[in-house]
Structure formats: C-alpha cells, structure tokens
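Here we describe the complex-level prediction in full. Unlike the single-chain runs in Section 2.1, the four entities below were treated as one system.
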Amino acid sequence: MGEGNKITINDVAKAAGVSKGTVDRVLHDRGEVSAKSKEKILKVIQELGYRPNFYASILASKKNFHISCLIPEFNDGEFWELTEKGIDQGREYAGRFGIDISAVMYDQYDLDSFQNACARVLDSAPSGVVIAPMFRNETLKFAKDLSERHIPYVYIDSKLEDDGYLAYYGMPMYQSGYLCADILTNGRDVRKLHIIRIARDKRGLSDPTITRRTGLIDYISEHYPECRIENTFIDPKNVASRYEVLDAMFAADPDPFKYIVMCNSRVHFVADYLRDRGIRTCRVVGFDVLERNLAALREGYVQALIAQHSDRQAAAAITAVTDYLILHESPARKDNYTQMDILNKYNCDYYI
Amino acid sequence: MGEGNKITINDVAKAAGVSKGTVDRVLHDRGEVSAKSKEKILKVIQELGYRPNFYASILASKKNFHISCLIPEFNDGEFWELTEKGIDQGREYAGRFGIDISAVMYDQYDLDSFQNACARVLDSAPSGVVIAPMFRNETLKFAKDLSERHIPYVYIDSKLEDDGYLAYYGMPMYQSGYLCADILTNGRDVRKLHIIRIARDKRGLSDPTITRRTGLIDYISEHYPECRIENTFIDPKNVASRYEVLDAMFAADPDPFKYIVMCNSRVHFVADYLRDRGIRTCRVVGFDVLERNLAALREGYVQALIAQHSDRQAAAAITAVTDYLILHESPARKDNYTQMDILNKYNCDYYI
DNA sequence: TTCATTTCCGTGTGCGGTAACGGAAAAAAT
DNA sequence: ATTTTTTCCGTTACCGCACACGGAAATGAA
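The structure predicted for the assembly as a whole is:
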C-alpha cells in the first residue's frame, strides 16, 4: 500500500520496449526522445503507476540544492528570533535531503539593506527562497526576478499580491486583531481603550500590524460603539520618553483600571512600565511569544498574548520548498493561515 | 554544513586501514570484527564525523519496516477521528521511508477487544508500535512483551508509568483542568459550578479525564473557596434521560446563569440541550475539537474549548518511531506535552 | 607438524536512479 | 550515391551502503 509499489524504472523500460536511459530522459524532459517513444513511455508509466524512488534519485544525482531565507535581522529576544528557530528546524528537515539552508538578514527599517540582501540572494543562485517581506515594491521586484529565473519562493509572516509564490504561511492579521479585542474586553463594560503604538511605525513599509489594528477597531465599533479609542505613541529606543508618555496617559484619566493593547510584539514595554510603577489594575493584551512577554504574562502584568507559532511558519515554508525541489510536489494549499494561539499564565508554559 | 559532510564509508575504511565491509560490520554491530579494528574504526568515525548516508542505506537494505498504531475505534465526529487523521499524516511521512503504517482499533470499553488487538499486533511482528492506552494493567503487559522483542513503542494521549517507552506525546491533563477552570470563571464572581459527567466513566480503565477534573477542582478551591461544585451524570446513549437530568438541574436552581463544564470531549451533549431549550444564559467550557463542539462554539452555546491537537500527537509519535528506525535517533525529549489551545468563536476557524 | 576450526576481513554485486558517452539510424546536404 | 548532420537511443559507470561469499590468518586439535 502507498509507497509499497515496487515498480522500477527498469520495469517501465521493459514494458515500453526501450532502455531505462530513454525512460529517464522523458522523466526529466531532457529531450532526445522521439514523440512516439515518449508517448508510449508516458502511457506505460501511467498504467503501471510508476513512482520514482527518490532515495535512489537523490543518491544518483549530485545536485546541490540550497535555499535562502530572507528575514529581518534581530536582537536576542525579539520577534524574529522565533522565526530563526523555525529555520533551524527546517534546516534539519532539508538537510536530510542534502539541501543547505542559509538565512540572509536585512535591516527592516532600511530599504537599501533589503535591496542589498536581495541582490546577494540572487547572486548565490539559490534553488529556492523564503521571504519575510517588509518593503512592498522592492519585494515585488525581487519576486519578479525570482520568477524569471524559475526560482520557487514562499512568503512567510505576510504576503504580497503577486501571484507567483509557491505558498504562504502566516497569521490572519485582521482576525488576530478582532480576536485580540474580544479577549481584551472579555465581556466587560469597556468605555475606553488604549492602543499603544510604536512611534516610527510608518514609512513606505508594508506593516502587517495595521491590518491587525483595523480588525481590533472593527470589533470595538461593532461590540462597543460608545467605546473611545486612544492612541499613544512610544519610542522603542528611549526608555525615559516611554515612561513620560505613559505617565501622562495615566495622569490624564483618574480611573486606574485601563484596557491596554499593543498590536505588535512589544507589549513588554508596557509590562516593564507597569511593573516599575507597581500598577496591577490594568487589563493588557499583546502579541507574540517573546521571552519578555512571557515573563510579563507569568507575573500578571499582561493578561493574554496572541501567538502565531512563527517558527512553524518558517519550518513549513522550508518544508514546502524542499518538497517542491525533491518530490516535485506543491503544497496542498497555497495560502496557509496559522492558527492563533491564546496564551495566558496557565497554558503559556506548555507552549512549544 | 550540517549534512553537507561528504565523508563516506570508504573514507572511513581507508583512514582506518580496513575495507568498507569491516566498517559496515561495526556500524551494524554485526560482529566478526577484532576488538582492535573495531576500536580503530570507531575512533576514525568519531574523528572524521562520519554520518551514514541514509538514502544509500535505505536503498541498499531491502528491509520492510512497518508500524502498528493501537487506538480506540470510533464513530464519525468522535474524538479519536482526529487521531486517525494524524496517523494519516504520519503515514505520509513514514511512507517516504518505505515504512507502512497500520491502525489497529479496539473497543475502549472492552478489555478482551484490547487484548485481542495486542495479540494481533504482536503476531504481525511490527517494527514499532504507537499506543493510545486505556487499560492500565493490560497495557503494561503489552509494553513488556514489546520490550522483550526489542520493539520500540510510543504512547500517545496518556501514558503509563513503565519506563521502556521511546516517547510520549500528550496533553498535560491536570494543567488542562486548571486552565479550563480559569477560562470558565473568567474573573467572575462564581458561586456555583456544574460538572457534567458521563455516567459510565468508571471501570478499571485508566481514565485521564479524572486527572483533568482534579486540576479543575484544585483551581476552584484555590481561587473560589466558597464555590460549590455540583456533579451531574448523563447517559451518552440516552437522549431522553439526558434531557431529564439536565431539566432537573436547571429546575433545582432558579438562577438561569450557570457555569457548566465537561471534562471529556462530549460537551456537545450540553450544547444540544441548551440549543433545544433555547438557553443562552450559561457559560460553558469543554474540551477537544469535534465538529459538533465547533458548531456549538460558533453558535455561542459553548464559550470556549480547550484543544490539544491530537492529530499532531499521533503524527509526532509515528515520526518518532520512524526516525528511530531509520536514523537511529531517539526523540529529543521523552515526554512531550502538547500545548493547550484555547478556542473561542473568533479563532476556531483558523484551527489547523 | 599437520589438519580442522574459528576468527576476521576484503571483494563483489545490487538497490533504483542519473547522466555522460558514443554509436546506429534517419534525415539532410552535396 | 555519398557524405554530413541530426535525431534518437542503448550502454555503462557511478552514488553510498548492505550483505553474501569466500578466503587468509590465527587458533585449536591430532
């Protein structure tokens, strides 16, 4: 059953009245086969249900595949670290097929850096590419380059509207915002909600968290039409300024019980503030499993995190490319939306 | 890097001053090698970092592995259906290595049926076994039989206290009950809680949901010491009796707002009742992703489900055995606790 | 010392493909 | 009709390993 069919290329050759060399030529579309033979061989393959033994195939072909993964660079404990872990998992899988995986990093706030990285990847003539896109136009350009070279590529994290990608693995961003709002409000009578945002979240970048914020706001306006939403901007690089801004936010309203949300992975900024100020009266929800976010969750400064297993996304992306290269199989679905995991202090320790 | 090291058995042979036949003999511990040569070869392998090419290995050895999975039989839409899906995923993976997977089912309420299944599995002389245990003593006996035959086995869903298993994949049952209580109470002022139980959940079976209930009760007594817990027993096979019992439960207390929980996968029984009676005032939490549970979640008769991806457990189990057989690699961790997923109406559609 | 055993090891074949190589047959050019 | 070119295909040498086979060296028995 399944792979148990023991039909070899020799069986096909015999049945078609040719040599296995000829069969191999049609299998790989290497030409030099008459139309008649080709047709016959194809028919025999069909009838016999021949499936090449891909061990033998890998063993015999000395091809040297390698896959490049283009992701933002990061510091310890930041969001993209988990993605890199997923790349490591993927590397293990692909390694079994003799495929090398390399991660190419770029500065997600520097367009030049991204273009540079793209150029380097193209130069290395990869067999396949995994991209976590940040710059819309430049990524589309890069995607075009890849398509022209017939290099398969997979998007992770977020995707663009081009059509040539092999697969996409990411979170449904809008829904994640919607879900986040539900968890934040939690059936309570919410009158005001604070969205903490990163001051420099702008530029020409395609920021997926905007979509998330839209989902969040939609939920609120549907379920809490009279709820006020207040945006507060903080500077990720300046602690003092963050405290100032947040102090001001708390000072502006006497009610100590606040609903706070961050749409990116940096909710630990808020948690740090609350911890330092000894404020335990807020309900805070954020995204993504960073070590600092988990700590805040355990200590109770953050009530819930919505996570997306971005490691699995990366691993799945590499698996998809690998299977495509080795088995010539495209993934079952092109667009794959990762599940959204709700973490609180009671289940977070069992996450992964 | 990684698998890229191109050291072959020939290199080892040359470096050790023997032939590849001898190297092969020590690699497989087939004997007929002098202690001196063996030592030398082992040293060389170490130094060179030789890793056998397992394609070539599989190709050359005509071994025919097969893995048996021992799980309870089920009807459509029941809990174990998801496990079977996971077996299918595992089959795909193992199939690539020429390993056959067969599922052997037993009646989880019939000891004889289980023993029969065990005997059949043993007779088929499997290369490895995956077990979802239900009967403690008999499973231990079976485990002993497997150990004696040097057949690796993996537990899924729940495990026993023997020591010979290769790995375990399952949910932390106690924690899941604890988590469930947190989600059910949700910070509210809960005075009374209804646990709905299956009437015939007894016998000599090792029922993991007992542990879960313990976690649930512990949470309540820690966080809501004054909360009363009421157990209600329903009959899974008798609709009329279920309605009677639940009617009585609702009649006994005028407060229509009830906290209800089921510790097994059958919360849809409660949902069916609530739907029919048009009761929308309860907060209901249950376990596991059955289609009927999901429907109840979407319609709002159940507020949350705690899920455990039992498909992944099965797939991981098969992967573990496969890797053990093919790559001679034991899984990184012996006990693997699956994450507990919290599902509500907003993220359930993205589950899987 | 000689012959029978054991112990130990090298050689060779094949697993199912890949792809280079070279040659026969067919088509085109002269 | 002969030569050149093209088209098409069979042969063959691996790929890295598993394992059967047979033989040399070492050991034991006589």
